[in-house]
Every structure is written in C-alpha cells, then in structure tokens.
Design a protein that fits this description.
- The structure is a single chain.
- This protein is mainly α and 127 residues long.
- It is built from 6 helices and 2 strands, in the order αβααβααα.
- The chain is 37% helix and 3% strand.
- The protein has a two-stranded parallel sheet with strand order 1-2.
- The termini are far apart.
- The structure holds a DNA duplex (13 and 13 nucleotides).
Length: 127
DNA sequence: AACGTGACCCTAG
DNA sequence: ACTAGGGCCACGT
C-alpha cells in the first residue's frame, strides 16, 4: 500500500499554474465572461492560453468525491477571444455551457456570447 | 520514448 | 479579407 499520504496523490496535473487558473476562474463574477488568453496573460504566461483550456477541462473532470465542495470553478464563464463557446463539448451535454450562461443572464446565440465586449471581464483590468 | 493532438492566440504573407 | 504557421506545454498512444 502506498502508505504515503499526499505523495500517493502526486498527481501530475495539479501544478501551480493549473491551480492559479482555477483560482482566477473562481473570481469571475456571475453574468460575466473572460477568455483563455486573458487568464493566461494575467498569470504572466501570455502564450500558454492552451494550458488554460486544459485546466478548465481538468476542473470538470475532477472527482466530486475527491474534492468535496472545493469545486466552484465556473468553467462555463471562460470562452475564446471571439466569445465562442469552444469548450461546450466537454460539458455533460453539448448545451450545458450555454444554458448555464443563459441562467446568469448572458445571452448566447449559435454557441457564441452575444455582445461579448459588454460581458467581458479582464482579470488584468478588473482585478 | 517519440508523435500527434488539443476548451488558444498572435504574426506574417 | 483569408490562410498558414509558430509557440506553448500536458496527455494519451
């Protein structure tokens, strides 16, 4: 048995960057949205926007059991720089992302945030 | 262990 | 205006 406490969970994906991404994502106010690039820039890794996407993916995959209530990572509030819901297919259903946004008052049409600029929340500016 | 693939973004032709 | 390619780095095969 891997008597080791934490080391057993020496999980490869929980790097600092990923945690920081989750932390920032949690700060996105309901009804607002931001982009992968904006988060990456805020964290000083402007060219790692792709990794932000992976971090979001991970957030959804995370075991609800492994992490009791430490989950409020609003992945639905992160879209690409054009306001398109490029990650929708990773949600339980293809429409879940749009539905969650709509529930917060963010209008979505054709998998795209309507009036993106008005809803855009830039951590570098707002934080 | 190298290779391809991604919830991206920017620059250049 | 449109297409192509580079950079980034974690993951699955």
């Amino acid at each position: 048995m891997n008597g080791e406490l934490g080391s057993a969970t020496a999980r490869p994906g929980s790097g600092e960057f990923e945690r920081d991404v989750h932390a920032v994502a949690r700060l996105i106010p309901p009804g607002r949205v931001t982009s992968y690039g904006a988060i990456a820039r805020y964290l000083g890794a402007a060219r790692s926007s792709r990794m932000v996407g992976w971090a979001m993916n991970r957030a959804l995959d995370a075991d609800p059991i492994d992490t009791p209530q430490v989950h409020p990572v609003p992945a639905h509030r992160v879209v690409n720089r054009l306001g398109m819901l490029s990650g929708r297919l990773h949600f339980p259903t293809p429409t879940a992302m749009a539905e969650r946004l709509m529930a917060e008052g963010v209008e979505v049409r054709d998998d795209r945030v309507v009036d993106f600029d008005a809803h855009f929340w830039d951590p570098s500016t707002e934080l």
